[in-house]
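Protocol step 4 of 5: obtain the predicted structure for the target chain.
Materials: sequence only (see below). No template structures provided, no constraints applied. The aim of this step is simply to have a reference model before the mutagenesis design in step 5. Sequence pasted as it appears in the construct record:
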Amino acid sequence: MVDKLTGFNPNIAIPPGETLIEFLNSIEMSQVELSKRIGISTKHLSGIIKGKASITPETALGLESIFGTPASFWNNLEVKYREIKTRLEEKEKILNETGVAKIIPYANIANLGFVTRTRKAEEKVINLRSFFGTASLEFVPDVIPAAFRRTMQREASSLSLAAWLRIGEILAGKVETEPFDKEKVQSVIPDLKKLSLLNPEEFLPGIERYCVSCGIVFVLVPHLPKTYAYGATKWVSPKKALLQLGNRGSYADIFWFTFFHELGHIILHSKKETFIEEDGTSNKIEQEADEFASKTLISRKEYEIFIGKDNITRQSIMEFSEKMEIHPCILVGRLQHDGIIDYRDFHDLKPRFKWAKD
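Step 4 output (structure tokens):
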């Protein structure tokens, strides 16, 4: 660890006590004698000499009287020793965290511009600490607990998921929104649905604009290795929610269902929770969000009338979708999910998005 001013790179912290011993030897004074003259116990003096106890300003003034050296000399020795000792301890901590850093997809995060590119393990630890906003990578589970709560995939990495969520937090922190307004969110839902008829270049700015007006930050964060997350929501403040989507499952119907699923969490569920949509997620809250997305995208009554017909054709799908003012992929995805049609049927009506950040 090089001093930026002097270039000095100490490998050991030398306690002021060693200098004190030299002074004692120069005047042939014992430690017992010095303890009496300075008014401290021999045990405490021994602690100072070994670097286990600090030279206080009061002790420094006493040494000034005995040896004639300025108190600032002893104070500076103490400060420098503690600084070097702390830096060496910190270096050891950084080395111990390189194993944790290896689990995090550093190169992917660097490609997105959130950390500086480097191959040095110690620099990765330092940069990741700054990225997560923690003094140690060991604190990440305490800062982003939702990522470590559970995972549906054996190969999943909680640290990768934490990094993906952290990117969303950072992006959300840069966006100013109107205060969250639940009624306004519900009022713009028809407009959000209509955006499904557009291309990503057109609908992404539209989603962002509508969300900001309602107190929601929408961010699209590219998938990180071993995250297996489609989307997530959390409240970054009492008046601002984060709705984060990934680019896994780039089919249009998955994107739109996931978006409205996450919107359901924001409208229906607690502000204290972070919700993560992963493969295989299944519980009451997730089912409620699924139900919200399903009935919001396609009226249940209209859907039941449609599937009640004897023959589902390309033309009937197109006509129904036009009536509902949604992209046909949303209806096709719903029909496939419900087992009404095979996953191979009308597959060409489900476009795949090629995101600009892929």
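Step 4 remarks: The beta strands are 216-220, 229-237, 240-245, 275-278. The longest strand covers residues 229-237.
Proceed to step 5.
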